[in-house]
Write a structure and sequence with these properties.
The structure holds two protein chains of two kinds. Chain A is α+β, with helices and mostly antiparallel strands. In chain A, 53% of the residues lie in helices and 16% in strands. In chain A, a hairpin with an 8-residue loop joins strand 5 and strand 6. The two termini of chain A are 21 Å apart. The relative contact order of chain A is 0.11. Chain B contains eleven helices and eight strands. A four-stranded mixed beta sheet of chain B has the order 1-4-5-8. The chains are: A alpha+beta, B alpha+beta. At the A-B interface, helix 7, strand 9, helix 8, helix 9 and helix 11 of A face helix 7, helix 8, helix 9 and helix 11 of B.
Chain lengths: 352, 389
């Protein structure tokens, strides 16, 4: 039993920190919010560094690394609010494909830098074509391919990959709290598909929840670090405001929420990487990790605004860059309440 | 990262678990409400755990241990908690006094006191809080004056758990009235049967398994060499004791959290209430996070020599404990207020955010030591005597 990252994981995290500190400061994140193509050079760079191949199985041209590796990296990308479709492609699409169709050519495409989004919603498979609509699909407008998760006859779950350029696929951008994770409605209008797999993609979504939770922990930590720095230097009533218990205690509660979430994320990631863990246990820990990280990120975001005060709700200040990511991440793939209820129901029914 | 137990962890856990199976009476868990009041069983458990080396697993054989590593020890502590093993009857003796004796005691003191406290033959109280010195421990006023080869002690302690049943107490006294308030404190070892000591139990608002006391000290004579640690260095003895206490408390709280969660589950199986599910999930996350943060801290200490995660566990565990028993009460419905066992657990949980340092003090410690936030400005630390009251 060990909660430390191994040498390889540590090296990857440090390399990521160095890269993002140099290439992803807040001016980059800001530019990306207003220029829809500003993310591309940074994406090219991380693809060259092999980040998109980390979780892809070796037989698909990837490195075949585990959830712990992804989590270690996602925590760093959260810290910098990395404005590229890394989380959606590597954290969502790849695990869902691996659960549904581990030899899908889309996995090899991810390893070499294709942007892939995951669309779930009221999507139906009619035997030869796919129809329906998925809402709030992250990064669909940047994607080359869409992993569609829908329902076939008798309610069976089906997964297929369609080209985002297909004439029967319509991608309609909608407003997003975080334009660096743009959202869209994806309409499938009798899209002909051949490689449709009947499967249980839920374990893939549970991996996605854990990776997203790691990103949220990184976001929350950044917001807390900014808050600690501010209250240590901002002087009112002749003292730094962090000396006041009312301020100090708020930030300590935020710190406890973040550590709680971080422990649960690491726990869930390690359990996912254990070959013989029962699916119910993986699901349970994914629920707890996602719920805790969602709460921690929202709390960190609120306390950051509170302790920074008015400056934190200006465009110029950086708090909103991270709060945006916190808001989207907390709502995506199941918010805290949904995840807590899912975990509790399983516990009451004796299936956790 | 690796979640799998090491071979040594698993081996130790299985050995302890088998030993516990042998020790516990049939149907122990189902009759926990009775067994937790069974002082004979609790005493017997302590003696047996001492003999078998499960009492303080990280210590050497002969001192209630078997020289296990910290990781294996935590595994045993959590297994003991998970199985709701009998609570040590004088838990602060093993959890706080014994480590202090071992760390600060002279060879003679260790020889005289360690084994009896570990076996549970001699109970100990912690003479820390006073009517005017609670969270502000450094403000204590009980005074000890060295006259020849005897300390003469006058003052009062309060909230002293089990003083009425204890043989000894660590007694923190002001010995240097001219030093800054944190510097002039000495930890004496008081024989509670000494003349001049009056112990008065304080009646608790609810049924409780442990008694709080007031301890009055009136010209009490304590031998000059009955000092734990150095003279005027009692602050450091107290701080290391409080750190041992924090490490003990979060595990004790975790036991009660797990038990509370099971209670909620049983209630909801009888009468499902969907509106409580999110809160139950939140507390399940607490329980898992507390346990695994303990492992995270231990393994980080092994990897890097530093484990700031430990500092949050007392605050986190005690706050969560209260929420769990509030939830247990909600889940039990209107009949909750008629259930004496449930009221006892809820009442006990209220104390958890107080003993061993209040949540407010914990937040100050975490804020300053972990987050590096500025300290609250205090009046300059003057000798206590020179201040006006």
């Amino acid at each position: 039993m060990n909660f430390g990252f191994d040498d390889g994981q540590q090296a990857l995290r440090e390399a990521a920190l160095t890269l993002l500190a140099a290439e992803c400061d807040s001016s980059v994140v800001r530019r990306a919010l207003e220029d829809p193509d500003a993310w591309r050079p940074l994406w090219k760079k991380i693809v060259e560094l092999g980040w998109t191949s980390l979780g892809v199985p070796e037989e698909c041209g990837g490195l075949g690394l585990g959830v712990v590796d992804l989590v270690g990296l996602a925590e760093v990308t959260g810290r910098w609010a990395l404005p590229v479709p890394f989380l959606t492609t590597v954290g969502f699409a790849a695990p869902v494909l691996m659960a549904a169709s581990p030899r899908s050519p889309a996995l090899a495409a991810i390893a070499t830098g294709a942007v892939v989004a995951v669309a779930t919603g009221d999507v139906r498979w009619h035997g030869s074509t796919l129809s329906g609509t998925a809402l709030q699909v992250a990064d669909a407008s940047r994607a080359e391919m869409i992993v569609a998760v829908g329902e076939g006859a008798d309610g069976v779950c089906v997964v297929t990959v369609v080209s985002a350029q297909s004439s029967n696929v319509r991608i309609v951008p909608v407003s997003s709290v975080d334009q660096n994770r743009p959202l869209a409605e994806v309409h499938f209008d009798e899209v002909p598909c051949v490689d449709v797999v009947e499967c249980q993609p839920q374990p893939g979504f549970d991996v996605a929840r854990v990776v997203l939770a790691a990103e949220l922990v990184g976001v929350a930590q950044r917001l807390l670090d900014m808050s600690v720095e501010h209250v240590s230097t901002r002087v009112q009533f002749d003292r730094p405001i962090g000396a006041f218990q009312a301020v100090k205690h708020r930030l300590v509660d935020t710190h406890v929420a973040i550590e709680r979430a971080r422990t649960l994320v690491y726990d869930a990631a390690m359990v996912h990487d254990e070959a013989d863990t029962p699916v119910a246990r993986r699901r349970h820990l994914a629920s707890l990790a996602k719920a805790a990280a969602s709460e921690a990120a929202l709390l960190a975001s609120r306390s950051a605004v509170q302790v920074h005060a008015a400056i934190a709700i200006t465009w110029e200040h950086d708090v909103h860059l991270f709060s945006r990511r916190a808001r989207h991440g907390a709502a995506a793939l199941g918010d805290a309440t949904t995840m807590y209820r899912r975990a509790a129901r399983a516990y009451v029914e004796g299936d956790s | 990262m690796d979640i799998t137990e090491t071979a040594a962890q698993r081996e130790a856990r299985e050995r302890y678990s088998a030993w516990l199976d042998d020790f516990l009476p049939q149907g122990y868990r189902a009759n926990y409400a009775d067994h937790r009041r069974d002082w004979d069983l609790r005493r017997a458990y302590q003696r047996a755990a001492f003999e078998a080396g499960w009492l303080v697993p990280q210590w050497e054989p002969g001192l209630g241990g078997q020289s296990l590593t910290r990781l294996e020890t935590l595994t045993i502590q959590l297994e003991s908690a998970r199985r709701a093993a009998p609570k040590l009857p004088n838990v602060q003796g093993v959890g706080v006094v014994a480590p202090a004796l071992r760390e600060h005691g002279t060879p003679e003191q260790r020889e005289r006191y360690l084994v009896p406290v570990l076996r549970g033959d001699e109970w100990w109280a912690l003479g820390m809080s006073e009517p005017d010195a609670g969270s502000d421990f450094g403000g204590l006023r009980t005074k000890a004056v060295l006259q020849g080869d005897t300390w003469v002690v006058n003052g009062q302690k309060i909230w002293t758990t089990q003083a009425d049943q204890s043989a000894f107490s660590v007694m923190f006294c002001r010995t240097n009235p001219d030093a800054p308030k944190h510097r002039g404190i000495t930890c004496l070892i008081a024989d509670l049967s000494a003349p001049g000591i009056t112990i008065r139990p304080i009646r608790s608002a609810e049924d409780s398994l442990e008694t709080f006391c007031e301890v009055f000290l009136d010209d009490v004579e304590i031998p000059a060499d009955a000092v734990l640690g150095a003279v005027d260095d009692g602050w450091n003895v107290a701080m290391s004791s409080l750190s041992h206490e924090r490490d003990m408390i979060w595990i004790l709280n975790w036991v009660e959290i797990e038990r509370g969660l099971e209670r909620v589950r049983d209630s909801l199986r009888n009468e499902p209430r969907d509106e409580l599910l999110a809160e139950l999930g939140r507390r399940l996350a607490d329980a898992e996070a507390i346990r695994m943060t303990g492992y995270r801290a231990v393994t980080n200490e092994l990897n890097t020599g530093s484990s700031p995660e430990f500092l949050i566990l007392k605050l986190f565990g005690s706050e969560s404990l209260q929420e769990v028993w509030e939830l247990a009460s909600l889940a039990a419905g209107p009949a909750a207020v008629t259930d004496g066992e449930l009221l006892l657990d809820q009442f006990d949980a209220l104390a958890a955010t107080l003993y061993g340092g209040t949540s407010e003090v914990q937040r100050n410690i975490i804020g300053e030591r972990v987050l590096g936030l500025p300290k609250e400005p205090m009046r300059p630390s003057q000798p206590l005597e020179s201040r006006s009251r």
